[in-house]
Specification:
292 residues, two-stranded antiparallel ribbon, 7 helices
C-alpha cells in the first residue's frame, strides 16, 4: 500500500546513475536538485522527495568506512523526519556498502534502499530511471496497519529487491548486475511489486534504532572459510581438508558473502569485542546475513 503522505530522503553518494555527458561527451556528476529534469516521472509521485548529495561525489571504488559513517550520520540526523531512505551509489562496491550499513543501522524500522545504474541517468537506454523510481516506491510502501513494509537495508536492481548483506555484483556490463545466491529475493517488480513478507527482517520487538559508527578498517583479507562457488554453504566437518582447517582454528563462514564477511568483521572488531566474543558472533545471524 503506497502512502501518498509519506516522505523519502534521496541521498546521492556518486556513481554512474548521477552522471551526465557534457558538450565534449565526458561524464560528469549533475546537480541532484535538478533531478526532475532528467526524471520527469517523479512529478507523478504524490509523496515528498527531498535530496541530499555528497559535496564531492564518490567513485564507488573509493568508498570506505568513513563514507559509510557519513551515510549513517545523515540517516540518523534525518531519521525522524522521513518514512524511508534511498541511497544512490556506484555499483562496484554497492554490496560492501549495503552489508556494512546493515550492521551499522541496528534495529531500524524503516527502509534503506541502495540502488544505482549501469548507464548514466541522462542516457536514453538508462536503467537508472526504473531502478530509481521503483526504489522510491518501495521506500513508501506500508502494511495495512500503516507501518513500513520493508524494515532493513536492501539493494534494488533490475526488478529485484534483495537483502543488502546477501548480494554480490555479478556483471559489469548487463543490467542484471547483482544476485542474491544464498537467500531468496525479498520482492520482484513486474506489473506489480510482489513482496515476500515472510522473508523480511524485522527489528526486535520493543527495540529502538541504534546507529553505529565505529568500524575497524584493518580487515583486508577474510580468514574465514567460505565457499568459492557462487551459491551454497561451507560444511567443514564433511571432508578431511575442512577438519584440518577447524583444527587450525579457521572458522566457518557458512553461506555468507565475501562482502558481508568483511563488513561483519569490521563491525565486530569496531565494537571492541574480545576474540572469543567475535568467534561466537560469527556463528550467529545478526541481521540475516547467514543461514544458521
Amino acid at each position: 500500500m503506497l502512502d501518498h503522505n509519506a516522505s523519502v530522503l534521496l541521498i546521492y553518494t556518486g556513481g554512474t546513475i548521477g552522471m551526465v555527458e557534457d558538450a565534449e561527451g565526458a561524464l560528469m556528476p549533475f546537480d541532484f536538485n535538478a533531478l526532475q529534469e532528467f526524471v520527469p516521472e517523479l512529478k507523478r509521485f504524490q509523496f515528498t522527495i527531498d535530496t541530499i548529495q555528497f559535496e564531492n561525489p564518490v567513485d564507488s571504488s573509493d568508498m570506505n568506512p568513513d563514507k559509510w559513517a557519513k551515510l549513517v550520520w545523515i540517516i540518523e540526523d534525518n531519521y525522524a523526519g522521513y518514512d524511508g531512505f534511498v541511497i544512490l551509489h556506484g555499483t562496484d562496491t554497492m554490496a560492501y556498502s549495503a552489508s556494512a550499513l546493515s550492521f551499522m543501522l541496528e534495529n531500524i524500522n524503516k527502509p534503506v534502499i541502495l540502488t544505482g545504474s549501469q548507464l548514466p541517468i541522462g542516457k536514453i537506454r538508462t536503467d537508472g530511471k526504473e531502478n530509481l523510481l521503483t526504489a522510491l516506491e518501495i521506500a513508501v510502501e506500508k502494511t495495512p496497519e500503516g507501518t513500513p513494509l520493508v524494515t532493513e537495508v536492501c539493494i534494488f536492481f533490475q526488478n529485484l529487491l534483495m537483502r543488502g548483506n546477501r548480494t554480490t555484483k555479478i556483471n559489469a556490463d548487463n543490467f542484471k548486475a547483482f544476485n542474491s545466491f544464498n537467500f531468496p529475493v525479498l520482492a520482484e517488480a513486474g506489473t506489480q511489486i510482489r513482496y515476500r513478507h515472510d522473508l523480511m527482517h524485522r527489528p526486535l520487538r520493543g527495540s529502538t534504532p541504534k546507529f553505529h559508527y565505529a568500524l575497524d578498517p584493518k580487515v583486508a583479507i577474510v580468514v574465514l572459510n567460505v565457499t568459492q562457488c557462487a551459491s551454497g554453504s561451507v560444511g567443514m566437518s564433511r571432508y578431511q581438508a575442512g577438519k584440518r582447517l577447524q583444527e587450525l582454528g579457521v572458522l566457518s563462514g557458512y553461506d555468507i558473502t565475501t562482502e558481508a564477511a568483511v563488513a561483519k568483521l569490521m563491525f565486530l572488531f569496531g565494537l571492541g569485542l574480545t576474540r572469543g566474543e567475535i568467534k561466537i558472533a560469527l556463528k550467529m545471524s545478526i541481521v540475516g546475513e547467514i543461514t544458521v
